[in-house]
């Protein structure tokens, strides 16, 4: 029994305490406040809405763990979605075959990865701040997308895309299954692979990692490449969900991905954080949004509450750190 408990503790880490407490608080509050909250419809809605935000959060997670940031995630996702859309439009539109969709997905992932490669190379070799580099990429990708689409939507896709965005397997939404697979992939990468270990080292102290023999430039480029590739997966899911692509889709998700990372116990300066607590934090944010909607609150209020929650998380973290310092001094 102790070994099982130890394994669970090692899997989740101490970071699970914050999102776990928030999950219980949200469930109890809205469970009492709204009779419809604890229903199949609510959890079904969360299951369909979670994946696109979740995938973008995974794209944000790796750069944050290195002490960086990727502000271009939403526009990278949209330019990747536009890549798939253009391949389909150029080869029959609504009559395009699955092979063309598969080719579009491959090209979309390549486009997403390419944006990450460029950012990673600039950050690694010029030591420019990740915020400035990713902001520049965000502006470039947004401008390029608006130029190519003239600010409009691209729509008219084959019917077989509908199940990818809205279908289910054994009662589980297909987008959710894709997201869970990506969560497991990221978990394995960070806990079982050398790249994950080096990512934590760079986030903790990049100079110490360099002196330890870690090729920090290579790791940073790989981290941003994987971040861009994950953005592309999110873009493909968004295309299937909305049955259209627009450069501005999911613009509001950017800051929410940062909130999810911090609520999930990820250190904003890098070096510490796990995937599973971030997954729980995403569930909390979606349940919070659904609960407010059931109570008749405007979606903008939910966004405001997310902002307040981020401030509260920062304050609670500071208080926890001060409490630990006091306990050490007493000990």
From TrEMBL:
Keywords annotated in UniProt: Cell inner membrane, Cell membrane, Membrane, Transmembrane, Transmembrane helix, Transport
Segments crossing the lipid bilayer: 16-33, 53-86, 98-124, 131-149, 169-190, 219-240, 252-269, 276-295, 301-320
GO CC annotation terms, alphabetical: plasma membrane
Compartment(s) of residence: Cell membrane
GO molecular function: transmembrane transporter activity
InterPro entries from the UniProt entry: ABC_transp_permease
Membrane-related topology note: Multi-pass membrane protein
Superkingdom, natural source: Bacteria
Pfam family, one: BPD_transp_2
PANTHER family the record matches: ABC TRANSPORTER PERMEASE PROTEIN YPHD-RELATED, ABC TRANSPORTER PERMEASE PROTEIN YPHD-RELATED-RELATED
Protein name, UniProt field: Sugar ABC transporter permease
Source organism (scientific name): Phyllobacterium sophorae
